[in-house]
Design a protein that fits this description.
The chain is an alpha/beta fold. The chain has 13 helices and 20 strands. The strands form 7 sheets. The protein has a 5-stranded mixed sheet with strand order 6-7-8-12-9, covered by helices on one side. Strands 17-16-18-19-20 form a 5-stranded mixed sheet, with helices on both faces.
Length: 379
């Protein structure tokens, strides 16, 4: 893929997601099935608005089907799926204009509730499913085909690659997830992200702000806008680099820093994880279970929490046991301890507010309200 971004003075090449691979392979196979022609390349428009011309690999024709593959290219972003081939087998079905999508070898199956797909479905997320459906629907119409198409996405290498991911822990078994919300992989090294945060904080400090507002990403930004009535542009995005962001805020001279984020990410702070990327650890269930135990949860409740894939499921279990409030109070107390005992923040006042899209606001550290009031006053 010949598309680049510049981060921290470095030119980095974009890549494309497994979702784009799946959609492109499905489109190519469908076109070859319905036209009878061979395709050396296939063109795909991604949700990001960037068009891709991708080489079609390993075409196989059979009775009523065509299968082909697209090689995943992650660009300059480190990714365990880089170089993996994603295949699509497309078959004719009698249902008029229908598009059915399933996963084959190397594509995981969802076994726990709370993920993007329901239990039993192939782990092909919503955006890739939409891309595949739109592409195949267009092929059916353009070719004047009266029937429908069934597509099976596979990635045989995914069986082994998935063992290097958190998929088994999340309840996705047997392979990888087909992912991507934009269709494009934006490369960004850890160093580049931290430098971006440093630059933004320096600029805001120069503008005279005394208290900085942090969000990890889109969930936090949406919560600021929709629930707190604060312009998301007021916030600095930390991504997974929460500890670095607080340290850099102190370095830049801020007197206070408040973090607003989803519990799925912020719960890791209670365990002392200040880089919340899953490659550094995914201890959400362990932390919830430990604090549930501290609050008197019976063994069965703790076991159910440990078996849960998503934090909303853990909260639902605590709700059933009448323990959500005391457990969240315990977690917030520990978050406050971890935040205030960072050696790199000096005398800067720090706080956190966490929420769930299902349960709303869940907890605040003791100094959070004062920091929020300062942020509103500073405008």
């Amino acid at each position: 893929m010949d598309s680049y971004i510049t981060k921290d003075g470095k030119k980095l090449r974009r890549g494309y997601t497994t979702g784009s691979c799946a959609a492109a392979a499905a489109k190519a196979a469908a076109l070859m099935l319905l036209t009878g022609k061979d395709l050396p390349t296939v063109w795909l428009m991604t949700p990001r608005g960037i068009g891709l011309t991708l080489e079609v690999r390993e075409t196989v024709r059979g009775e009523g089907f065509v299968s082909c593959g697209i090689v995943k290219d992650s660009g300059d972003d480190p990714d365990v799926t880089n170089g993996m081939t994603v295949y699509a087998k497309v078959e004719k079905i009698p249902d008029p204009h229908a598009v059915r999508i399933d996963g084959g070898e190397g594509i995981g199956r969802v076994t726990k509730p709370g993920l993007d797909q329901p239990v039993g479905n192939a782990a092909i997320n919503s955006t890739p499913r939409r891309m595949i459906t739109e592409e195949l629907s267009a092929v059916i119409e353009d070719c004047g085909f009266s029937g429908g198409l069934a597509v099976t996405i596979s990635a045989p290498a995914g069986v082994e690659i998935a063992k290097k991911t958190f998929n088994p822990r999340l309840g996705i078994v047997g392979g990888l997830s087909i992912l991507g919300t934009t269709g494009i992989v934006e490369p960004m090294s850890d160093e580049a992200v931290v430098e971006t945060i440093r630059t933004e904080l320096s600029m805001r400090a120069a503008g005279g702000g005394g208290t900085v507002l942090f969000v990890p990403g889109n969930y936090g930004a949406d919560y600021l806008k929709n629930e707190l009535g604060i312009d998301p542009e007021r916030a600095v995005t930390t991504s997974n680099f929460i500890g670095d962001a607080f340290s850099l805020a102190a370095e830049s001279g801020f007197r206070g820093a408040l973090l607003v984020g989803h519990i799925g990410k912020l719960v890791k702070l209670a365990g002392g994880l200040f880089n919340t990327h899953s490659r550094y650890g995914d201890c959400r269930a362990e932390i919830f279970a430990a604090h549930a135990g501290l609050c008197g949860a019976p063994a069965e409740v703790i076991r159910r929490i440990m078996d849960s894939a998503m934090t909303d499921d853990m909260l639902a279990i605590l709700d059933e046991a009448g323990l959500r409030r005391p457990v969240m109070d315990s977690l917030m107390e520990r978050m406050d301890f971890q935040l205030t005992h960072q050696k790199t923040i000096g005398s800067m006042k720090v706080g956190a507010v966490t929420f769930s899209n299902v349960y709303g606001i869940l907890g605040k550290t003791p100094g959070a309200d004062v920091l929020m009031e300062r942020i509103r006053e500073e405008g």
